[in-house]
């Protein structure tokens, strides 16, 4: 089952995944948990969790939809995550440059103020999970970031950083601003990183007993 509140992104997922998914739903991630009957082996959330209004609420909503031996797997962009204090992505540098130039009213927080492994694992525990795995993946790029075909260039064509009269105008404004950011991206040694978390439901003593002797936890 695929859940995506944005209709255009849901259509893109449908085109890519096709019949491998049993259903597609344009739904809020919390409400979508009620669409699942029974329990599932895996929930996968790709580069979206921290963009939700209430990430812990989303985690809580899905906790009782994951089997005790199942996994909640999610990835976070290194742009909005503190991997290490000196590691930033080209997108992070570009947004900061747009803010410095007065083109964006707000920049991103300093790296030290971004979520990190400890804070995200604390959120997981607060939502009823136990962290099982953490991994940092570096994504190599073959072309200069600010030129056509570069990762940052391609990303800004989909999700422009600057506002505009419409999507096309926003993309044109954003791409026009890219070349000026190239020196800053190079000087910061910016590189793309994605972090991956895997968590399992942390069963209560009652749920452990029910799982062992009564056929599984309630819900």
TrEMBL record:
InterPro entries: Methyltransf_11, SAM-dependent_MTases_sf. GO terms for molecular function: S-adenosylmethionine-dependent methyltransferase activity. Residues 3-74 form the Methyltransferase type domain. It comes from the Bacteria. Signal peptide: none annotated. This is Methyltransferase type 11 domain-containing protein. It comes from Symbiobacterium thermophilum.
């Amino acid at each position: 089952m695929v859940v995506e509140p944005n209709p255009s992104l849901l259509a893109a997922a449908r085109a890519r995944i096709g019949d491998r998914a049993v259903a597609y739903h344009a739904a809020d991630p919390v409400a979508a948990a009620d669409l699942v009957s029974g329990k599932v082996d895996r929930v996968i959330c790709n580069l979206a969790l921290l963009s939700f209004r209430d990430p812990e609420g989303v985690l809580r909503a899905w906790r009782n939809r994951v089997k005790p031996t199942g996994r909640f797997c999610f990835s976070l962009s290194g742009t909005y995550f503190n991997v290490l204090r000196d590691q930033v992505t080209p997108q992070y540098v570009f947004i900061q440059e747009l803010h410095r130039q007065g083109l964006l009213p707000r920049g991103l927080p300093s790296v030290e103020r971004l979520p990190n492994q400890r804070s995200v694992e604390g959120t997981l525990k607060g939502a009823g999970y136990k962290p099982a795995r953490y991994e940092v993946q570096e994504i190599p790029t073959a072309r200069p970031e600010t030129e056509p075909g570069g990762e940052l260039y391609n990303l800004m064509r989909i999700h422009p950083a600057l506002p505009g009269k419409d999507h096309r105008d926003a993309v044109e404004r954003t791409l026009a601003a890219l070349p000026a950011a190239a020196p800053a991206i190079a000087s910061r040694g910016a590189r793309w990183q994605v972090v991956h978390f895997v968590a399992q439901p942390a069963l209560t003593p009652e749920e452990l007993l029910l799982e062992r002797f009564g056929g599984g936890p309630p819900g």
